Each structure stands twice: as structure tokens, then as C-alpha cells.
Amino acid sequence: MTAPPPRTVIENCAVATVDAHDTEHPTGHIVVAGNRIESVGPGPAPDALDGVVRRVDGTGHLATPGLVNTHHHFYQWLTRGLAQNSGLFDWLTALYPVWARIDEPMVYEAARASLAMMARGGVTTAMDHHYVFPRGAGDLLGAEIRAARELGVRFHPTRGSMDLGASAGGLPPDFAVETTDEALAATEAAIDAHHDPSPGSMLRVGVAPCSPFSVSTRLLREAAALARRKGVRLHTHGSETVEEERFCKERFGMGPTDYLDSTGWLGDDVWMAHCIHMNDADITAFARTGTGVAHCPSSNARIAAGTAPVPALLAAGVPVGLGVDGTASNETGELHTELRNALLVHRLAGGPGALTVRQALRLGTHGGARVLGRADDLGSLEPGKLADLVLWRLDGLGHSTVADPVAALVLGPPAPVTLSLVDGRTVVEDGRLVTADEEGIARHARTQARRLARLAAGG
């Protein structure tokens, strides 16, 4: 007889499933069997379950799907707090010369810190867009992958690239870019070495030239063809600033969406970060093709880039998820704060009905899973889905008088994470990482940040 899978039972908590019907249980249960959700429902868990290795009393808590981060730049953890009053192009001009000195030890510690900050705040699936590859810097993508594996976070790294330096009319300095052929070859090698397409995968690699103003048309076209030949997803920045729109019109005679479309960069295997300056035709093109959006409200505000038309994107059926973005433009490094910031930003722009608390939660969970192509596996609490879930404590001082648990999570102060499971395994318990030493991560990241600052200053 086959032994039953080890089961974890969570009960007596409020449950927001974020399924297609937004099913919620004021008091409910979740049963995890192995790495999958076995059952979700109202009231206590079924009696006489075999193989129960743990029971969790969720009284005073809300259970939700794990948060899904759809856009980040881990290496920027080492340059937080710089270029504080700059818009995007000035911010990039100030920071590219620093970033061009990163190496493998720096990226490893920055990735550990970025992942740790997100994980302890409810992120179970993280994405990173790494596009700076100085010569002789070591295996930078491999360093991130090693960090994610050690912390136990589901990871979607993307191999980025830049081949359009300042001498060719791009924004990055020449010493911060690769040749087109180098970038394409390294991207294919990264997919071959790391991508795991299997069901329930903990690691999927994407293709991600940086932006229309830092890569050539040839790199965009051939990167899209490479990704589709390899069966992986595509990611880039798009329509982030008015300066980007002006750059595209001056250089290519069209706006960012039309230009990216002309290079093969619209489709249901594509998602773009920011998508702030979009007109009705752009939104229609995204909806028609299924192109996704990574919405980064805090970063957009930090560099004064503008407010993305998220309510219009959602109304058109565009897949939209939330992103932290790099921590040099969102120093908190957390995604759960983006639930609240998204709601507030869009109500400022569009009125009190622009976004609801449940839409905000959906952006951070099921929306992100759609954007990453993982909606069949992730993003909602349903039988058969992967056991990536979070138990938020809402009975403390900060949330004690908010009767609606979803409103408490989204509108209230950041809620402590009592339990976070990734693939059925505990990553956070009682607000602390169980897979890594937080103090050690902070100490090592600080050391690498100081080392980078010395190198950038010529020391």
C-alpha cells in the first residue's frame, strides 16, 4: 500500500481563494498534501485525514495565495537611496557607471537580500530582470539562481541584455553593454543551463532585452525568435516615460508599442514592465495579443514616471500583475506594500471606484501568475494547485478593528506573515525566514554595497 502524502492542515482562518469567483470563507480550512493543495473550504478540515504532520490554528489570520512578483532588479539592492530626486533618464545616467562594476559576489548577496525581503513579506514566486553583465564579472545569473534555491523561493529569472551604448545613440555607457551576438549566445546558454519547463517547476528562465532605448532592433527581433524557438517567455520595459516615447518616435517614427509590435514583441508569451504612457490603441493591442503588464506603482512614483492606466488595462482584459521593481527605485523591496500603493495611486488618478481591495489582491496573486504564464499552477487557492500560500496575522493592534480581512490586508499596515509555504515547504514562520539567517544576509549585503561604492569611486 502506498503511504499517504504528508499533509499540513490550516484551519480556523479567513480564506480568500482569489479563484474565478473570488470565493471567500469567513472561517475555513486548507489541506496541503505534499506540494499541492488538496482541499479548501468553509469550517474545519475533514476528520480522520491520514498522514497529517502538522496542524496550524489560523485563528485571527487570513490565508491567501502567495504573492507573485512580476518585475525586479535584484542587483540594485546595493545602490538604494541614490539619485533621490531624479527622473528615469537622469537616474539611469547616474547609476549605470556604478552598476557596471558589479560582480558575482555582489549579485549573490544582493539577490539573497532582495529575495529575503520579499519572502518575509509574503512573496512565494519572484522574478528578476538582470541585464548588466560587465566583462569578467563571473556568473551573475547563476548567482541569483543559487540564492533563490537556497531561500526556497520559486524563481523566474530573465536573462537581460543591452547592446546599444551611448556611442550608438543609446543611454547606457559603452562599457556597460554587450555585443548583439554575445548577448544572444549568452541568453541561449542560460536557457539551456537553467530553464526547467516541467509541471510545478521552481525555476523558469525568460529572455529579456532591457528596453527600446538600450537595445538594437536586431537584438529585439532575434531575442524574440530565440525565446519562441526555446519555448520560453519574453520580458522588457515598455512605455515607462515620456522621454522613451519621444526617443522611439524620433528614432523609429512610431511609439513604443507599435515599435515593439514591429519587432515581434507583442503576444501572450510577452510581458512588459511599467506601461505607463499608453493610449487607447496601445491598450487594444495588448488586449488583442494577450500581452501582459508588470505594474510597479511605488517605483513609478519614486522616479515620477506617471500613473499606469491599470483600470483601463483590466477592463480591456489585459493580464496585469504587480512588481517591486529594483530597490534603487523602490527602496522598501517589498511587494505586499504594492497592494495598498496600487489602490491609492489609482484612486487618486481615477476616483474611489478605480480599484477595489479585492482587485488589488488579485493583481498581486492571480494577476501575477497570469503574467508569468503560471495561472494553471499558481495564484489562487484551489485543489490541485501548487501549495504556495501565506497566512497573514490580522488580530494585532494594526488590524484589530477592520472587520473585512481583505480590506485589513490591503488598506492596513503591513501584516505580519505567520506562515508562508512554497511548494508545500515552510519558508517563513512567525515573521522570520526559516531558510536563511536574516542578520547574516543584511551584514554580507552591506559589505558588498560598501565594496561597490569604493569601486565606483575609483578606490
Structure, described:
The protein is an alpha/beta fold and 459 residues long. It is 36% helix and 21% strand. The protein has 14 helices and 17 strands. The strands form three sheets. Strands 1, 2, 3, 4, 5, 14, 15, 16 and 17 form a nine-stranded mixed sheet that branches. It has a four-stranded parallel sheet with strand order 6-7-8-9. A four-stranded parallel sheet has the order 10-11-12-13. Helix 4 packs parallel to helix 5 and helix 12 packs across helix 13. The longest helix is centred in the C-terminal third of the chain and has 19 residues. The protein is globular, with a radius of gyration of 21 Å. The mean pLDDT is 96.
Task: Write a concise keyword list for the protein shown above.
459 residues, alpha/beta, nine-stranded mixed beta sheet, four-stranded parallel beta sheet, 14 helices, 17 strands, 21% strand
Give the uncertain stretches in residue-range form: none
Average pLDDT across residues? 96
Output the radius of gyration: 21 Å
The best one-word shape is globular
Structural class: alpha/beta
What is the beta-strand fraction? 15-25%
The major beta sheet can be summarized as: 9 strands, mixed
**Helical content class:** 25-40%
Annotation, overall tally of beta strands? 17
In DSSP terms (H or I, runs of 4 or more residues), the helix count works out at 14
